Amino acid sequence: MALKLAAIEGHDPRVPMPDKDLHPDHPVLADGTKPNFETYLYYAKQQREKEAAESKSDDVERGFWANLLWGKTNERLAPTNLPDDKKGGVARSVSDAEYRAASSALRTASWGSVFYLITTDILGPYTTPWAFSQVGYGPGVACFIAFAIMAAYSGLLLWYMFMKLDSDKHPLRSFGDLAYRIYGGWFRHVCNVLQSLQLIFNVGLIILSNGQGLSQMAKFKLCFSVCNIVWMLSGMILGQIRTLRKFSWIANLAIWLNVITMIMTMGAVANTPPNYQGAGLPPGPVQTMAINNQPFEGQLNGIMQMVFSYGGAMIFIEFMAEMRRPMDFWKAMAVAQLFITIVYLFFGLFVYSYQGQFVVNIANQGISLYSLQTATNAIYLTSGLIAAALYGNIGVKVIYNNILVELFMAPPLTVKSGKYLFAVSIIVYWALAYVIGSAVPQFTNISALVAAVCIFQFSYTFPPFMFLGFVMQQTALQGDKSYDVNNPHGSRVDTWKDWSRWRRALSKHIVFNLWNFIITLACVATAVLAAYSAIKSIITIFHTAGSPTSFGCKSPVQ
Question: Whole-model pTM?
């Protein structure tokens, strides 16, 4: 077998891989049936035991504290004595040994790398000052901390379910895969559609915000739609990177670029007047409020900007899927959530205190001094493009694997034709994102709509809803016979069509299940109200005289 020197999913290039797709979304067992819940639990337990044994060996070789502080690097390689997958030009099926070896080889990222990927958030920090301007100090701080706590709770739920259901034999690759193993195909499709929408709208928002920054740098002498086209073309080029592992060092750079931009923005707003033109308000004294008593539409739009700060849960499964030791994911998530909460909260309060009602959504674009505004825009544009490329990379993979491969029989990403089709898909994806950002040039309202419809579900609604189903299924197993790997479907004594199984599923963890059910309903209600507010605001802006038009040349901050 020839070595695959161009790694697609982040495996070591020295590890040979079969040409076939090693990650079927709908795996089958030896008897031709699909794995059930018990099968996933069985192989996941074996996988975790294997990883725990490797962890002890790594701690001895490298030192416990070095592994704790910096994460584990992938020094072990999968077996390299895999047989050739073609005999006389006729492809054969992938064996279990090949499948497990190649699946293990895909897992290379450390928890330190995942920390950088989680915090590669270009929208969160720069929208928090505007969020405080809409709700005031009190509700703003309370909501921001509450969102942080609940986001951490959801992240832990996702991590726990991943650890219980993922294995080399039956790997989890996406949020939709986890949804499939708990509620079936219908919920998987819901998650995949919302995930695809969120990612492409995120890219569209970054094109829009970068277009605003470029138009400021050009002193509005360059048509706004042309500014957006510049970033669309840049993304088409950078998006050709196919593996998250190659993004980790770029993501590291993006974090510090964001920190530098925030520091420069705070220094600028503390020593210069607000950007009255960008805020669309006449000059006047800065006003801040403990509570901003305005109509609920504006308040909800502001609160949804905070949701963007904790919008990473949607791709947590992808991150864990590429980790050599997914049991360490909690470290990456905990440090990332703490970093986001402290830094973003401080930044939002600081800028709002100096600019008040004149805060511009994309805070550094509210700097009035052109030299500082241009400097921060230049850094922001760079980090924004990196984040957009990350979102686009995962977004295209979701669409490619779940639509092109599954429905249209496209070649997998592990073959040459798949690589070419992936490159074309990136171009189409960024073109669609450009249409989104230019057709509705309203950053605040579009970001609020995306947060309500997509981000809120993955970060707050779906995790407790999925964990409710996970706990019920696990509890129902306690009345079944012992699992037999040779007869995986023979252990159940009843089915979900029988009340006896439902009675067992609901017999334990009653308070915890009720808590997750209530949280799910509360999140759905909040999301519906927030989506209504965002749509109403979009319509209002389009009917306001002097507002930017679709594919027009006037910049939203002009």
Answer: 0.81
